[in-house]
């Protein structure tokens, strides 16, 4: 009985649907550069630029790896808080994913 109750509470605590958020990479910038998500959501980074880029969290919590022109990668945001990220190739390219 206790186990069933615990499982029911765990199921209730899980979000029913994780949202996906889109970030475009274009003209050596992330668009948008700052996004707010819920913990468990995903972010799809799409490289619409002519150069290869990455979206790499400063805290190591996510990394798209190298995205050539036209490629995309989906990452999951698992931890709450602000996750600044950058392009591992171009250090001037930065953004922040904030998860609540
Ligand atoms: Cu880059």
Automatic annotation (TrEMBL):
CDD domains, per the entry: Amicyanin
What are the UniProt keywords, alphabetically?
A: Signal
InterPro entries xref list: Amicyanin, Cupredoxin, EfeO_Cupredoxin, ET_Amicyanin
What is the source species?
Mesorhizobium argentiipisi
Q: Indicate the secretion signal residues.
A: 1-18
Which protein are we looking at? Cupredoxin family copper-binding protein
Give the EfeO-type cupredoxin-like domain ranges: 6-99
Indicate whether Transcription regulation appears among the record's keywords.
no
């Amino acid at each position: 009985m206790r186990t069933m109750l615990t499982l029911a509470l765990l199921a209730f605590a899980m979000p029913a649907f994780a949202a996906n958020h889109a970030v475009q990479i274009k003209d050596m910038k992330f668009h948008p550069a700052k996004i707010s998500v819920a913990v468990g959501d995903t972010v799809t980074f799409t490289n619409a630029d002519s150069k290869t880029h990455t979206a790499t969290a400063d805290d190591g919590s996510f990394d798209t790896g190298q995205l050539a022109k036209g490629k995309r990668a989906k990452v999951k945001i698992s931890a709450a808080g602000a996750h600044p990220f950058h392009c591992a190739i171009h250090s001037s390219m930065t953004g922040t994913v904030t998860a609540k």
